[in-house]
Amino acid sequence: MLTSPLSQAEPLKWTVWPIPGVVNVADGKPTDGITMLALRQLMQRLPELEPDYRLANRLRQQRDMEYGLQFCSTPLFKRPDTDRYAYFVPFLVSTPIQAVVRRDQLEHFPLRDNRLVLSDLLETTDSHVAVSAFRTYPPLIQDWLAVAEPLGRAERISGSLSGSNLLLMVSHGRIDLTFEFATITRAVSSQLQPPEPLLSLPLAEEMELVVSGIYCSGSDWGRAMAEQLDQAIRELLQDPQALEQLLALYADYLPAETWAAFDKKIIAYYRERAEHVTQWPSPTVADSVPESPTPAETIPPPPEPDQ
């Protein structure tokens, strides 16, 4: 049977970030993980689009979007600089980022009500902290780093795109502490089995859920695609069966105690998101950026993540 060209799905290029437990990778391709499975669930609601998933990192994603290439990227946090050349679509919500230390070093970290206060790290300890040079961190962590880095108490380290190398460095005692989300810490501990057990400490200043989402290129195409994805997300969340399937991913990928502590907040977020239509101002850079001389297909892929 012949297929009419009008019935063929429109290709949609995706770049996804390889992060354990979030976007897992095998043989250089994304497989599963909480964001990857949620994204595939979303794309099932858009049969008119044919997704093409590729691995990327922030620098590549930023460069390609600034050049005006037409694609979407996830999982990303909203950033003012990226808003200049792309459209952000809120999608998933994460439990708060935590401090990760070696379990046998817990006594060296002063806690208040079983939570770590970030200011105490500088004032009452000599702990050395490291974060990933490839990752975007919540504003609270960014503000703390702006104070700690000039003092030589924190640094940004490259290596693994996912930042999983930092968790291993904590386990080996090469650094004292890093910041990570529960999903990622659990996945790294399971996959890489660090020599010394890791412990996640809630941060006293970080109690709110963190929204991650999708950026689409800041062109007319990107605006239309962002609107299409935004509508599909709302329709997914208004479907009780689809929402139940999405929430089941949290039970699979979060530690049981973390899911139990935040399940009501997560459900409340999705109920609100189901009714919220995203609005965007026009990006200020995309229209003035020269067209890239290099097609997306010829850009070398990022290095394999350390897994």
Q: Describe it for me?
A:
Helix content is 36%, strand content 21%. With 307 residues, it is an alpha/beta fold. A hairpin with a 2-residue loop joins strand 2 (25-26) and strand 3 (29-30). Helix 1 packs antiparallel against helix 9. The longest helix is centred in the last third of the chain and has 19 residues, at 220-238. It is globular, with a radius of gyration of 20 Å. The chain starts with 9 loop residues before the first strand and ends in a 34-residue tail after the last helix. The model is unreliable at 1-6 and 286-307 (pLDDT under 50).
End-to-end C-alpha gap: 44 Å
| Number of DSSP helical runs | 10
From the spread of the alpha carbons, the general shape counts as globular
How many individual β-strands?
A: 14
Report the helical percentage. 25-40%
Task: Map the helices and strands.
Layout: E1 10-16, E2 25-26, E3 29-30, H1 34-43, E4 49-55, H2 58-66, E5 72-76, H3 80-83, E6 86-94, E7 98-102, E8 111-112, E9 115-116, H4 118-124, E10 129-132, H5 139-148, E11 154-157, H6 164-172, E12 178-180, H7 182-192, E13 198-201, E14 210-217, H8 220-238, H9 240-253, H10 256-273
Parallel strand pairs: 1-4, 1-5, 10-11
Antiparallel strand pairs: 2-3, 5-14, 6-14, 7-12, 7-13, 8-9
Helix pairs in contact: 1-9, 9-10
Attribute tags:
3-stranded antiparallel sheet, alpha/beta, 307 residues, 5-stranded mixed sheet
Care to give the gist of this entry?
It is built from 10 helices and 14 strands. It has 307 residues and is of the alpha/beta class.
